[in-house]
Structures are given as structure tokens and as C-alpha cells.
Design the sequence.
């Protein structure tokens, strides 16, 4: 599947998931070249993936699949930078960890975050970074073996060269306990964990009391040995990278840098580290070169590095080193990386040029000359190979390489003046520089900032030697190039024209003397050579008078007796003549040497003058640098205080914003409650008016009820009186009847006293009548109880009627009155 089809399938799968929340087509896709194109389709795909990963409602399984896909995309530095800066993937993954912790994809998410944050500045004010730091510290302190290595590596990335994150961690309450946990990790059996821990401690506590105790003179040598062993013998590239970064960070501390200059095994360790450059892998080579460049920034280590780089390895080191048996110089590996065809080796080539420029900047001992002679053809080859048809990227790389090569060649020319100013060695350097300047002159209208660099180099004091050699050269092309550059440089304000004139005059005088000596040398070569040793020639500085006196002695002391003696004298005369010619030649050579020495003295005086000016300027710059460093420290302290103040202000601002939002919500609620209150107030007024009306009706009804009660009581009394009156009237009637009967009986008794039998009979009858009266009295009592029951029922009915009257009165007072009257 090609890239376009893969991208379209991925975008379709993302859209299907957004619509139907199904991820059946998403997890199986592979788009390793997703970020290789600058078109819209890859951007939409990556944006969709990041959006899905950051959505809290996305399932953890799908989130893990998306993170796995994004991990494949973050395969190089450029892709990681794009994912971090353009798509904000770091904050998204931090939010994923915050929302989906303790899930199967947590470890993978931490690994991708460690990739993204390596050598990347992360602001602690970014989204979910505080939560991420808290999560990392919690897992580190809990010593969760599943994720502790990834947590340590990620926290090391966040803390490195990041003052805001360091201040935030130091401001936490449990920072001391965290330090103790990190110190315990130094005894871990994994070297990677130890390196991560040392990196975190160096970032957080290097300039504090904890760091001073941890990296003091007693422990620092063990730390150096551990770091060098990991760099040389480390199993993986990851551990080696973090070890190099740790040592680079430690070298930024002047005290630790001074400890390293006095480290007894420094040369042996650096030789072993340089052995890694013989491999063809650009990643470890780049880290080694980064470490060497950091060492060059320490003045005490630069000379030690020169001794190691430009000398063959010793026998002990060859026996102990990884590439034992190699007799080539360590510098040979540097030269090989300059012209290496390995993919990705361009950055290593530039690092090598920068390293050599640093090493050859101060001085060049005699042992380094052979290395420089080997280096020059490679440098000349780097200046070639420009092909404008390959595009802007190739042109940019070539121009960057030219700038590094030019700087290196200028340093070589500077340190070889004046003893080698006209030798073939400097002639090659001058030719390379002229070609570089000619190329820069042609490219200055097409490359950004090239014109500025070109004119800055023309005003450099070091350009005098190659320009003077070109103007006095026998080659027409060199003279034409020199003249064109001189035409460009003459109007410049800081062009060293006086020094150029002196250099041209010295070169011309030397060439003239060399021509005169060459003529005499040809005349001397026509004389037959003498059979004598070189010590005789070297000691033949006798004056011409001694030669003539020797000839006179031979002529007077010897008698010419035969032709053989005369022939011998002729031979000696020829030899003495040759001696005389040799003497004159040596005298000419001495004069030429004296002239050259005078020129050299003049150049030395100029050099000393320039050096004195440079030293005075360097001292001045040193003082300014110290002032700037002191000011920087003061500003650093002030900045840290201001950063804390800004953090506090930001926290206060966030609290104020939250308080403002709460007040806004309260205001809205108040407005709503105010409207409801007004509604309720209107209803309350209406209800109060109705209540007053009802109360007035209630008062009237209460009065009516009282009246009814009084009427009811009067009626009840009347009813009771009526009942008792009836009852009494009945009893009275019966009593009268009985009295009448008694009277009748008494009359009858009086009438019938006479007869006892009649009275007894009458008495029995009376007795019987009395019984009947008793029965009638009990029946009357029963009727009374029945009447009371009926009266009670009437009272209940009256109460019910009163309640109904009250209810009806609450509905309508007028109707109530009529109903009450009707009830009454």
C-alpha cells in the first residue's frame, strides 16, 4: 500500500470512528512515512490521531493503538520535533497518562513521551505537565519496577536545562524524600537507572548542598569512571546518550571540570571513547563528538585532548581498549568521518570540523604537522562537489560545511605563521581558502546571510597570508582570484591593507633572494663534487685569507719535480677553488638567511604587537566576561525570584479568574433569584390581599359561629327543658292519677275498713298496681335514655352542619350566610 492510499484509509478510519465509535479499521494501519510529506492529508491524519488520543471518552485500547502508531512516526529528530511543536503531542500524552493511568498502554505512552522530550524544552506551564511530574515522582517513590525506568528517563528529560521545572520540583513539600529515593537508586543493578538518577540529581542539586556532597572530590572520580565505562562498554545507545549528556552537564560546573583535568585516567578513558569513532554508526559517533566538543570548552582539557587525538595509542591502552591492536592515530578516525559516505553522517562531519578547529586554534606542535598534512587533501575535497541542480537543501549543507572548513583552515594558517608561511603546506591552505572565498562570493546573492559572512571574513586579520601568497603566485588563476578578492576587500573599513603590503613585500624579497641563490647553486653544481663528509662543509666558514695562505704554503713548500706533482697541485687548486665557491655560496645563504630572519623578526614584531593587542583585548573581554558572568548570576537569582513571583502571580491570577467565574455564576444566579423573588413578591402581595379578605371573612364567620353556638346552646337548653317538662308533666299526671287512685283507695279503705278481707283484697290490688307503676317508671327511664341518645345524634349532626357551614363560608361568604340560615 502506497503512502497516499494509506493516508486516505487512515483518515477514513478516523472519520468512521468519530461517526460510529467503532475502531475496526484503525489499529491495523501502518504509515511509517506519514510525516515525510508537507501536504494537507498527512497533517489531517496526524491531527485526527492526536485528537482521538486526547479525547477522554476514547477507549483505552484504541488509545494504546494510536500511541503505538504515533511511536512509529517519531522515528527521527525531525519527526519528533514536528509532533511536539506542531501537533502538541507532548501535552496530549501527558493528559492521556493523567486520564488513563494504570492501563496497559501506560508504559508505551511513557516511552513515547521520553522520545519526544529528549533534548526538547518543555515549559512547566503547559497543559497537564504538573500532573505528569506528580505522576512520575509518585511512581519513582513507589519503586514500581514496570515503569520506574521510563519515569526516571522522562523526568531526566524534563529537568535537563529547564529552570522552571527544576524550581517547581524544588518547591514541592516532599522534595527531600524524593532526593533520598533517588540516592537509593544509585545502588540499582541497572546502569541505565543509575545514569537516569545521576542526571536528575545533577539537574536539581548540582549547585546545592546535596549536589556538593554527592559530587565532591571523594565521589567524583568514581562518577567519572562509571560514566566512561558506560560510554565505552554500554549495551545500548540510549544509556550511552544519557551518559554523555550527564558528563556534558557536569562539565558546565567549573569545580567538576577542574576535577576532571586532574583525573589520572583521563587520557586512557578518552582514548577508549575515541575508539567508538571507528564504527560506522553515526549515532554513537555524534554523541562522542558532542562530548569532545564539551571538553574543548574547558581550557585545561584541550591540551590533554590534543595529546590523545594526535598521538598513537600507548601499549597499555591498546591492550585494554576495545579496538586493541590498532596503531593508527585516533585522529585518523576523525578524518575518515569527514569524508564518510554513511547515511546521516553529515552532522558528524560538521562536528569533526568544529572539533578540529577547536583543537588547532591555540597552537600546533611538531607532532601535529603530519596529521595536518593528511587532513588538508580531505578539506580540499570537502570544498568541491557543489551541484546546484540538487536543490536548496544540498546547497545549504554545502555552505554550512564551507563555513566550518574555512574556519579550520584559518586556524591552521594562524598557528603556522611565520615559520611555514611560504612552504607548500601553507600554500595548500591558502589555495583552499581562496577557493572558499571565491565560492562564497558567487553564492552571496543566493544564500541567506552569506554576504555578511563573506565581508566579515575579508576583514579578518588571518586572511592576509593566503591573499598575499595568491597575489605573488606564479599561477595566473591564483593572481586573478587574489585581485578580485582584493577589489572586494579594499573598500571595507577594517581591511588590513598595511599588513597585506608588508606580507607581499616579504614574499617578494624572499622570492628574489631564492632566485639569486638558485643561479649561484647552478654555478656551483658544475664543479665536481669533493669526497668529504658533510661536517666539513658545515664547518667551512673560514675566511678567504686562510685559503690564499694555504695555497702559498703549498706552492713554496713543495718543489715541482715532476709532472705528477704539478697535476696534484692543479687538483688541489681546483678543490680549493671549489671550496672558495662553496664559501661564497654559504656567505650568500647566510645573507639570505639574515634577510629572512630580519623579515621574520619584523613579522614576529607585528605578530607580537597584534598578540599584545589581542591579549589586551582578551583581558578586557575577560573582565567584561567576568562582569557579565557576575551580572548573569545576579540576573539568574533575580530571574529565579521573578519566576517564583510569576508563578505565584499566575497562581493568584488563576485563583482570581476562578473567583471571578464563581462571582459571575453567583451574579447570574442572583439575577435569576431576583426575578424569581419579584415574581414571588407579586404572588405574596396577591396572596396577602386574599389572606386579608379571607381573614375578614373568617372573622365574620367566627362571629356567626359564636352566634350559632350560643343559639345552639340555648336551643339545647330549651330542648332539655322541654324534655324534662314533658317528663315531669307525665310523671305529674301519673302522680296525680296515683294520688287520685290513692285517695280513692283511701276513701275505699275508709269505706272498707270495716271489712278486713275487702281491704286485703284491695291491698293486693294496690300492691299489684304499685308493681305496674314501677314497671311504667322503668319504661320511662328507658325512654329517657333513648331521648338522650337521639339528642347526642342531633348534636353530631349539628357539628357536621357547622363544619360544612365553615367550608361553604370559605368559598363564598354571601352563600355561606344563606346556607347557614337555611341550616338554621
Sequence:
Amino acid at each position: 500500500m502506497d503512502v497516499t492510499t494509506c493516508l486516505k484509509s487512515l483518515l477514513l478510519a478516523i472519520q468512521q470512528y468519530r461517526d460510529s465509535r467503532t475502531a475496526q479499521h484503525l489499529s491495523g494501519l501502518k504509515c511509517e512515512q506519514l510525516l515525510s510529506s508537507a501536504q494537507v492529508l498527512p497533517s489531517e491524519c496526524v491531527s485526527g490521531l492526536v485528537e482521538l488520543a486526547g479525547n477522554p471518552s476514547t477507549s483505552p485500547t484504541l488509545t494504546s493503538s494510536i500511541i503505538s502508531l504515533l511511536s512509529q512516526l517519531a522515528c527521527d529528530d525531525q519527526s519528533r520535533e514536528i509532533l511536539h511543536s506542531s501537533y502538541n503531542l507532548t501535552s496530549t500524552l501527558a493528559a492521556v497518562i493523567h486520564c488513563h493511568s494504570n492501563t496497559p498502554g501506560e508504559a508505551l505512552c511513557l516511552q513515547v513521551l521520553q522520545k519526544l522530550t529528549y533534548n526538547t524544552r518543555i515549559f512547566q506551564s503547559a497543559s497537564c505537565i504538573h500532573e505528569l511530574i506528580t505522576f512520575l515522582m509518585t511512581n519513582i517513590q513507589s519503586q514500581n519496577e514496570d515503569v520506574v525506568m521510563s519515569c526516571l528517563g522522562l523526568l531526566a528529560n524534563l529537568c535537563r536545562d529547564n529552570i522552571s521545572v527544576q524550581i517547581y520540583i524544588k518547591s514541592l513539600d516532599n522534595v527531600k524524600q524524593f532526593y533520598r529515593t533517588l540516592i537509593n537508586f544509585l545502588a540499582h543493578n541497572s546502569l541505565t537507572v543509575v545514569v537516569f538518577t545521576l542526571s536528575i540529581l545533577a539537574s536539581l542539586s548540582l549547585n546545592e548542598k546535596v549536589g556538593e556532597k554527592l559530587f565532591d572530590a571523594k565521589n567524583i572520580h568514581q562518577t567519572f569512571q562509571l560514566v566512561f565505562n558506560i560510554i565505552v562498554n554500554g549495551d545500548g545507545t540510549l544509556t550511552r546518550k544519557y551518559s554523555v549528556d550527564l558528563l556534558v552537564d557536569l562539565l558546565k560546573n567549573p569545580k567538576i571540570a577542574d576535577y576532571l583535568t586532574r583525573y589520572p585516567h583521563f587520557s586512557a578513558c578518552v582514548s577508549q571513547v575515541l575508539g567508538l569513532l571507528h564504527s560506522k554508526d553515526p549515532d554513537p559517533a555524534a554523541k562522542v563528538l558532542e562530548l569532545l566538543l564539551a571538553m574543548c570548552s574547558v581550557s585545561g582539557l584541550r591540551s590533554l585532548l590534543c595529546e590523545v587525538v594526535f598521538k598513537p595509542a600507548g601499549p597499555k591502552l591498546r591492550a585494554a581498549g576495545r579496538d586493541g591492536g590498532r596503531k593508527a592515530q585516533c585522529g585518523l578516525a576523525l578524518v575518515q568521518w569527514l569524508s564518510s559516505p554513511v547515511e546521516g553522517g553529515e552532522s558528524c562531519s560538521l562536528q569533526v570540523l568544529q572539533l578540529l578547529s577547536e583543537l588547532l586554534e591555540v597552537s600546533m606542535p611538531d607532532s601535529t604537522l603530519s596529521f595536518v598534512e593528511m587532513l588538508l587533501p580531505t578539506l580540499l575535497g570537502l570544498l568541491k562537489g557543489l551541484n546546484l541542480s540538487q536543490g536548496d537543501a544540498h546547497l545549504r549543507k554545502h555552505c554550512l560545511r564551507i563555513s566550518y572548513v574555512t574556519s579550520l583552515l584559518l586556524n591552521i594558517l594562524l598557528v603556522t605563521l611565520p615559520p611555514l608561511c611560504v612552504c607548500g603546506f601553507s600554500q595548500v591552505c591558502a589555495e583552499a581558502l581562496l577557493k572558499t572565498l571565491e565560492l562564497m562570493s558567487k553564492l552571496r546573492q543566493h544564500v541567506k546571510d552569506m554576504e555578511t559572512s563573506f565581508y566579515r571574513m575579508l576583514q579578518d586579520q588571518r586572511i592576509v597570508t593566503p591573499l598575499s601568497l595568491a597575489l605573488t603566485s606564479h599561477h595566473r588563476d591564483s593572481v586573478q582570484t587574489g585581485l578580485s578578492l582584493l577589489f572586494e576587500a579594499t573598500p571595507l573599513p577594517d581591511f588590513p591593507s598595511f599588513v597585506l603590503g608588508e606580507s607581499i613585500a616579504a614574499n617578494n624579497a624572499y622570492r628574489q633572494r631564492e632566485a639569486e641563490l638558485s643561479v649561484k647553486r647552478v654555478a656551483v653544481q658544475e664543479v665536481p663534487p669533493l669526497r668529504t663528509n658533510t661536517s666539513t662543509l658545515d664547518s667551512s666558514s673560514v675566511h678567504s685569507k686562510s685559503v690564499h695562505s694555504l695555497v702559498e704554503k703549498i706552492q713554496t713548500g713543495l718543489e715541482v719535480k715532476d709532472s705528477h706533482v704539478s697535476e696534484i697541485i692543479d687538483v688541489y687548486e681546483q678543490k680549493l677553488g671549489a671550496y672558495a665557491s662553496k664559501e661564497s655560496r654559504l656567505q650568500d645563504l647566510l645573507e639570505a638567511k639574515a634577510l629572512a630572519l630580519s623579515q621574520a623578526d619584523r613579522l614576529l614584531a607585528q605578530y607580537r604587537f597584534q598578540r599584545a593587542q589581542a591579549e589586551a583585548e582578551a583581558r578586557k573581554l575577560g573582565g567584561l566576561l567576568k562582569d557579565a558572568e557576575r551580572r548573569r548570576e545576579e540576573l539568574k537569582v533575580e530571574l529565579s525570584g521573578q519566576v517564583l513571583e510569576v508563578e505565584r502571580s499566575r497562581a493568584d491570577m488563576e485563583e482570581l479568574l476562578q473567583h471571578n467565574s464563581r462571582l459571575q455564576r453567583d451574579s447570574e444566579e442572583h439575577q435569576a433569584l431576583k426575578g424569581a423573588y419579584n415574581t414571588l413578591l407579586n404572588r405574596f402581595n396577591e396572596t396577602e390581599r386574599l389572606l386579608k379578605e379571607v381573614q375578614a371573612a373568617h372573622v365574620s364567620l367566627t362571629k356567626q359561629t359564636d352566634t350559632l353556638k350560643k343559639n345552639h346552646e340555648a336551643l339545647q337548653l330549651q330542648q332539655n327543658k322541654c324534655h324534662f317538662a314533658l317528663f315531669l308533666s307525665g310523671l305529674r299526671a301519673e302522680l296525680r292519677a296515683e294520688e287520685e287512685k290513692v285517695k280513692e283507695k283511701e276513701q275505699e279503705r275508709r269505706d272498707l275498713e270495716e271489712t278486713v278481707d275487702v281491704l286485703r283484697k284491695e291491698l293486693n290490688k294496690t300492691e299489684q298496681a304499685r308493681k305496674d307503676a314501677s314497671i311504667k317508671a322503668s319504661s320511662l327511664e328507658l325512654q329517657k335514655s333513648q331521648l338522650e341518645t337521639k339528642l347526642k345524634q342531633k348534636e353530631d349532626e349539628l357539628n357536621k352542619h357547622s363544619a360544612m357551614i365553615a367550608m361553604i363560608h370559605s368559598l363564598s361568604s354571601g352563600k355561606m350566610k344563606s346556607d347557614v340560615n337555611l341550616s338554621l
In short: Residues 563-751 form the longest helix (189 residues). The mean pLDDT is 77.
